[in-house]
């Protein structure tokens, strides 16, 4: 549930729900950056993409902020590369034995060239410095979601030595884009985000994702927030521009994060993140800078790179890894450890260290879809 079902609107319209977002230098094609957007939690083996949606990747250059540990660690530049993927309405195949329906899609390159592809074709489509795949794949996200929710409900760490992936074997609709480094905005750090928007003359942002679990673990719990305890805040947050947070609801986001981040910090009965006199949590500004930070000039790395650039910037030190987020990263252990003990104590493990079917190091990277996925849970 990295970003699965991240608000009432995602629950009502799951086709537009971004479940996860990844960005990493290609281990298969040096000199390329890989972007992965997963959508539609609990996708069926024959599900297809919406012709009414715009699936968008946005990339901006970043500079390290002089604010350092006292504010947002990065300043996004104004230059932006946008990659928009759209899909045709499904066509009924002439021979129903071939799978029933087929669908084509296209991705618009920064130069205006259109790269076309067939959904579920592992070769994808290529052109204009891009390679694109779209189709049903095994959901790579790993986390003991039940234990995480129990931690919030009981106010005690509920993780066990052997955890379980919630509904292991579920599928997602995945879009994978490889982009040549020469097309990237700038030659250093990048901020990257994935979005779904309505398609047509008016593009309304429905979902946007940067880092995992910002919405479900950090913004969703209401009980600790004394300012907005009755406010479901995630749909408002989803509509925001990740690079230019609006002022209208910023106070509400900050109050929620200050309260919930303090809750996570207190789970080991000590305070590792000193709160300011105004109640501001030291991580609030970093969380609100909600985009993956990646250095595509450094080589691919699987473990230890997630959040490494952000934490190095807070300390005023140079980063050592490509950052971003790889498909096989155990990001939840890294995230929970920072939230609970600021990396100054033992690793906070959720008991799940890898996917049942890990991602590969060759395009399109994600494991093939499960032909017999578990049944979706009923929502009440």
Overview of the structural elements:
The chain is an alpha+beta fold and 380 residues long. Helix content is 17%, strand content 25%. It has eight helices and 15 strands. The chain has helices at residues 8-12, 145-154, 214-219, 234-238, 250-265, 284-288, 308-315, 331-341, and strands at 18-25, 32-43, 53-64, 74-76, 81-87, 91-92, 101-102, 104-108, 114-118, 125-127, 130-138, 171-180, 190-198, 205-209, 292-294. β8 (104-108) and β9 form a beta hairpin. The longest helix has 16 residues, at 250-265. The radius of gyration is 20 Å and the shape is globular.
Short summary:
The chain has helices at residues 8-12, 145-154, 214-219, 234-238, 250-265, 284-288, 308-315, 331-341; strands spanning 18-25, 32-43, 53-64, 74-76, 81-87, 91-92, 101-102, 104-108, 114-118, 125-127, 130-138, 171-180, 190-198, 205-209, 292-294. By secondary structure, it is of the alpha+beta class.
Distance between the termini: 17 Å
How many strands in all? 15
Poorly predicted regions are none
What kind of sheet is the major sheet?
A: 8 strands, antiparallel
- Indicate the radius of gyration in whole angstroms: 20 Å
Strand content range: 25-35%
What is the H/E string?
Answer: HEEEEEEEEEEEHEEEHHHHEHH
State mean pLDDT (0 to 100 scale).
93
Residues in helices, as a percent range: 10-25%
SSE-based structural type: alpha+beta
What is the assembly state of the chains in this entry? single chain
* 3D shape: globular
């Amino acid at each position: 549930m990295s970003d699965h079902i991240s608000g009432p609107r995602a629950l009502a319209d799951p086709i537009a729900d971004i479940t996860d977002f990844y960005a990493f230098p290609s281990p298969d094609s040096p000199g390329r950056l890989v972007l992965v957007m997963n959508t539609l939690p609990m996708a069926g083996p024959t599900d297809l993409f919406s012709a009414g949606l715009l699936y968008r990747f946005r990339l901006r250059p970043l500079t390290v902020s002089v604010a350092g540990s006292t504010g947002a660690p990065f300043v996004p530049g104004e230059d932006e590369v946008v990659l928009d993927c759209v899909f045709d309405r499904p066509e009924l195949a002439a021979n129903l034995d071939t799978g029933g329906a087929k669908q084509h899609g296209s991705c618009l390159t920064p130069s205006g060239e259109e790269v076309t592809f067939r959904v579920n074709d592992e070769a994808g489509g290529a052109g204009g410095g891009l390679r694109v795949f779209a189709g049903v794949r095994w959901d790579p996200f790993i986390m003991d979601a039940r234990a995480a929710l129990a931690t919030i409900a009981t106010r005690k760490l509920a993780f066990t030595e052997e955890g379980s992936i919630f509904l292991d074997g579920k599928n997602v609709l995945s879009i994978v884009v490889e982009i040549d480094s020469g097309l990237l905005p700038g030659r250093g750090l990048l901020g990257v985000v994935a979005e779904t928007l309505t398609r047509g003359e008016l593009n309304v942002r429905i979902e946007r994702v940067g880092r995992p679990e910002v919405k479900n673990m950090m913004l969703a719990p209401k009980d600790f927030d004394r300012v907005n305890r009755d406010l479901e805040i995630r749909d408002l947050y989803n509509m925001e521009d990740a690079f230019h947070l609006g002022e209208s609801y910023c106070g509400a986001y900050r109050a929620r994060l200050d309260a919930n981040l303090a809750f996570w910090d207190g789970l080991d009965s000590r305070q590792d993140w000193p709160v300011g006199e105004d109640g501001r949590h030291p991580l609030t500004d970093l969380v609100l800078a909600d985009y993956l930070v990646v250095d595509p000039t450094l080589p691919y790395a699987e473990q230890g790179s997630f959040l490494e650039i952000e934490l190095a910037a807070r300390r005023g030190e140079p980063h050592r890894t490509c950052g971003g987020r790889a498909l096989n990263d155990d990001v939840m252990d890294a995230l929970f450890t920072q939230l609970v003990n600021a990396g100054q104590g033992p690793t906070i493990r959720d008991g799940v260290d890898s996917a049942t079917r890990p991602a590969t190091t060759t395009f399109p990277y994600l494991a093939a879809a499960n032909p017999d996925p578990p049944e979706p849970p009923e929502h009440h």
